[in-house]
């Protein structure tokens, strides 16, 4: 299993899976191994924490708080993904800091249309459930080619975002809608890889201690999906106002 994983393209999740194998090992007994249901429960708990923290970010008007949360979210997210054994300690700080940031970002989009944020939350939840069902039913299979496509799409999208930091990305109009749609697609592809990670870990007998690492990876993908759903809906709702 470990050797087969090393031969896969190095997406974030593929690399994260191998690091989890290296950190935790595989082959433990049924009572001690990762349970997909337990990981999904952790995802649900972290998501609820992020939503609760999002209320704080939504009503807060403190730039200092947002800067602190940005730093905490970046550090804890990277560490929890790339150093698997730290995830159980960093998952909650990551969820809370990201929730506050997303709440502040959501408030900005709310000025475009009062229905954007509730709609974005519902669409993100629907995407999550649909993706999980599609994976579990075998409708979508995470193959070697899928990993390669996800890697190319993720790297390409991140390059666009970095370029956009300097050149500026449109908020409304067709181009913003295209960027949002591509971002949603990238997030969905990474969700499929996350679910493949979880169920491969369960079948290979990875210890339960790895569950927090997997839950954080799923939450990272959900954040990506939500932000781009916001962008997509705002682009459609904002018309040509920019």
What does it look like?
The chain has 242 residues and is mainly alpha-helical. It has one domain. Helix content is 78%, strand content 0%. The chain has 9 helices and no strands. It has helices at 2-6, 12-24, 36-59, 63-82, 87-110, 116-136, 144-167, 174-204, 211-237. The longest helix is centred in the C-terminal third of the chain and has 31 residues, at 174-204. The protein is globular, with a radius of gyration of 18 Å.
Shape: globular
Please give the count of helices. Answer: 9
Approximately how much helix is present in the residues?
over 70%
Largest sheet: none
SSE ordering? HHHHHHHHH
Task: Describe how the helices and strands are arranged.
Blueprint: H1 2-6, H2 12-24, H3 36-59, H4 63-82, H5 87-110, H6 116-136, H7 144-167, H8 174-204, H9 211-237
What's a concise summary of this model?
The chain is mainly alpha-helical and 242 residues long. It is 78% helix and 0% strand.
